[in-house]
Amino acid sequence: MNEPLLHSKTPGAAETESSSELERILSDPTMPPSRRYQKALLIEMMYLFRLAGPAVIVYLLNNITSMSTQIFCGHLGNIELAAVSLGNEGIQLLSYGLMLGMGSAVETLCGQAYGAHQYGMLGIYMQRSTVLLMLTGIPLTVVYVFSVTRMAKEHNVQQDVKEDIVT
What we know:
This protein is mostly helical. Helices cover 85% and strands 0% of the residues.
């Protein structure tokens, strides 16, 4: 019960390697300071991109899906583009914002539990967060389902008005 779910390689081997290289570069008196800072910046940026790269890719892919929808609807007309833009913003603010915020809070709690070597709490946090996120997702789903039916009714009413005007 007190064992971690994932076993890492040697603790901190990559960090120790990059840290020692960084210390060697920064403490080298033969190199001019500007060159030392450039090399140190390069090492830090490579380390940062390796850590943050997957999160950046996921964020970009999420934005590409909503952007591609807006691009295709922009070809239909200005009103359609406005409707899709408002719809995407509503979805992103309500679901993505709320659910991602709650998931980020769980990530913080899990990191703290792992750092404190309380591996049993990781499972408890994950179970609680799964239940809480599902309970939050159900009302959001109901809101979206009823908003779609409401929009469909409004669309039918507008079509009827257009037909009455034409005839």
